[in-house]
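Lesson 9: reading folded outputs for more than one chain in a single document. The general rule is that every protein is listed as its sequence immediately followed by its structure tokens, and records are never interleaved. Here is the first one.
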Amino acid sequence: MLRTEHDFTLPLGYVDADGTMHKEGTMRLATAADEILPMKDPGVQKNPAYLVIILLSRVITRLGGVDAINPCVIEVLFAKDLEYLQDFYNEINLLSRDGPTVTCPQCAHVFEEERAGVGGS
């Protein structure tokens, strides 16, 4: 059975306006719409690096006791947590695994081809 939601724990955590720390969350698999529709967002059109903010706000379904995950929540995450979530997104959407391999003709070492993930991570 396909697992569409995956739990995560942020390395540092999101601190809300009341000072409450939120570390535990859930991310669902991305859909085609999740990756395509943010391209129409004015923030993404002005700054393509903003894509990761919109994308993560769409696929994170739970973050501690936060009522609604939106771009404002993702914008204030610590950089370490944002990096973690980008890597996690790439991992659960199979963007960093099972890629084509390349074999070195001299030493016969097998390398996985690097793939660009969301937000360039």
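And here is the second record, again sequence then tokens.
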Amino acid sequence: MKKSYFLLSVGVIVLILTISSCTNNSKVNEDQGQQIKSAEKSEGKIEKTMMNGMEQQSHTIEILSTGFKPNELKMMAGDSVIFVNKDTNRHWPASGIHPTHTVYPEPGGCIGSKFDSCKNLLQGESFTFIFGHKGIWKYHDHSNPALWGTIVVE
């Protein structure tokens, strides 16, 4: 009887230490990630994070009444782009070609490819997409097809 209580006690202690260790490591990693993001935000519109041992970047494209800024963006496969509507009008970033959105080769989304916000973004709203395929990807504003941009993924 004493042996089973002893083993149960040891098991509970090991479980508590394991959970505590995971929680502390998670918090440390989270804090380090926040420090990296905060430092990068102050330097410009690129945020760097580590994922699966590789550095990945998050790029920001502003949507203005005059178009996308920057209009052309070069990045690495696995990086993400955050499209932020800075205009008072609604904008809908999506893969070219209007209206099918089928240029980006990954199926999904709401019309043609996965590279599609699937809705109009109001002022201040954003859409984030991770580009996993290398190539030159044209995109447009589905709500205003005259606005175009290009993502070059190396």
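What the second record shows: DSSP finds one helix and nine strands in the chain.
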